[in-house]
Every structure is written in C-alpha cells, then in structure tokens.
Amino acid sequence: MGARRTPPGDARFALLGASDVDAAARVANSTIPPSPEAPAESVDGRLARLRARIERARATDQSGAWVAREDGEVVGLALALRSDGVWVLSLLAVSPAAQSGGLGRGLLQRSLTHADGCRGALIASSSDPRAIRVYAGAGFDLRPAMAASGPVDRAAIPAGLDALVRAAGPGDAVGTEPVDAAVRGGTRAAHIVQLLDVPDTRLYLAGRAGEERGYAIGREGRVIAVAATDEAAAQALLWRLLADARGTAMAERITGGQDWAIEVLLRAGLAVGPDGPVFTRGRLGTLRPFLPSGAYL
Ligand SMILES: CC(C)(COP(=O)(O)OP(=O)(O)OC[C@H]1O[C@@H](n2cnc3c(N)ncnc32)[C@H](O)[C@@H]1OP(=O)(O)O)[C@@H](O)C(=O)NCCC(=O)NCCS
What architecture is domain 147-275+283-291? Predict the structure, then answer.
C-alpha cells in the first residue's frame, strides 16, 4: 500500500526549531498519557523531561523532528531517530482539538524523510485507530501485541539468576551492540545510555563480557526493553527485571512469537491483555527474543 501524500511545501509543517521546543513539549504532555514505564513525576518534571528529549532529538536527528502548526501555534510534533540503519518513530502527537485533520499523516510522512537510506524501521503504536491507519498507509506491517501487568509472585522467581545475569552500567552499553545487530538489525548503544539517564533505570547483561547473549533495561519491575540471542538468556533477563518490582510490574509491546516472555509473565502472576501493535518495515533482525522500548524501540 503506497503512502498517500499531503502536498509538498504545505506551510502547516516545518522542521522543529529551537523556538518550538517548549510548545512541542506542551503538546506531547497534553496529548500522550505518561507511559507506565515512565518514572512517577510532577507535570513540571514531565515537561522538563519532554523538553530535554525533544532538544536531544533535534540535536542528533534534525531531519526527523517536525512540527505542525495551526494559526501559527504548534499543535503537533513528530520525533524520529535513526541509528545504524534503523529508523524509529520516537513520538507522534497532535493536540486533541487539531486531530483528524490530516496533520498526523503529514507529520509521519515528513519524519520518514529521515529514513532515507535506512534498512529498516520500527514503530511502537498506540491503539488509536488513526495511528494504525497512518502507519499501515506508510507501508508498515502490523504486528499485534499484548501487555502484562500486576504484582510479581516472588515465590515464582527462579533461583540462581545472578549466575546468568549481571548488573551493568552505561559504560557497558557496548555489550548490547552484537545483540542488537542480530535482533533489531541495527545497534543503538547511545540510545541505551540515554535511557539509563533516568534515575533507577537498570541495565542487565547476560553472558560473559565480550560474548553477551542478551540485555535488559527496566525500572522497578517495569520492563523497558529486552533483547537476546537465545530464549534462555531472554527469560533470565526478564525474571531479573521482574525481581526488581516494588509494586506493579509491567511489560508492553509483546508481539506474536514472544512466547518465551508470555511464559515468564504468566508464571510471575501478571495479567496479560491487549496492547497497541508494533509496526515494522524493511530489513530488520530476528526481532526475537525481543521486547522493544516505547521511545527507542
Ligand atoms: C494518532 C494521531 C497522531 C493521528 O493524527 P491525526 O492528525 O489525528 O490523524 P489524521 O487526520 O492524519 O488521520 C490519520 C488517518 O486516520 C483517519 N481518521 C481520521 N479520523 C479518524 C477517526 N476518528 N477514526 C478512524 N480513522 C480516522 C484519517 O482519514 C486518516 O486516514 P487516511 O490517511 O487513510 O485518510 C493523533 O490522533 C494523536 O495524537 N492521537 C493521540 C496520541 C497517539 O495515539 N499518538 C500516536 C502514538 S504512536
């Protein structure tokens, strides 16, 4: 299915400039509910984090960052990032009052110009029917997904995880690269370092240094991402994240074929239900075992 185009040179759309950052953060804050993986924070705290995220995307991926305006006001934004030949949609939002007017489709098309020359592309979609139309219309394949949440049955946590999985820091992010090359089809150690900037976020690695079999990122039982080259490593990593839960544990974007994850999450006592789909395009890795993150996939 070919992408339908809004007219080129449409004055409603522009690259996101330095002076748009505040307004774009306000649009994102009022349009997208905080992700369950996000840290608990005040509105001011969330706005500051969104501003920093938008600034960073603008600095590293300028041609992926776009705004849509109505009557001169920013009412929508798209942020796309690329790393090692893989493009990801990090954020797409149109203010409620401006929705259903073609801005979302136009923003996605423009952020996809940043995918030129990339092998593959990934999107973590919301369940919004408009988002699903926009991504499918741009030639992406839909992978239905589930999410899991609930308290962890601590008695179910297997013994001996420490022999399989080690805690790591930003300096070890290079250990994720061979895993991501195989699983995602492209590396993104710099994005992992950014994820670890948020307090209480942990990185775990499976396998010996230099021979990593997988990695996992989470925050207090909220699974941010897991990728591995074999299911045994992926399951140990997922259990390690769940063992960090203080209250509700959560995993999202569990696509078909990730039965290794469903098995662990059900054994841990979490409830499994539907989630927004993941969309893929082009040449990626095995995508298995893989739980992609929301903002960096
Ligand atoms: C999803 C979102 C970005 C889409 O942007 P938008 O400007 O509202 O959508 P558009 O007007 O571009 O419409 C997109 C498609 O949905 C269709 N559409 C419009 N209103 C619709 C509705 N109420 N129900 C179903 N489809 C609808 C449009 O016809 C269009 O399809 P087409 O290109 O095949 O004609 C926007 O609605 C939004 O911010 N939603 C909340 C946050 C969110 O879910 N963001 C996506 C995160 S992955």
Answer: 3-Layer(aba) Sandwich (3.40)
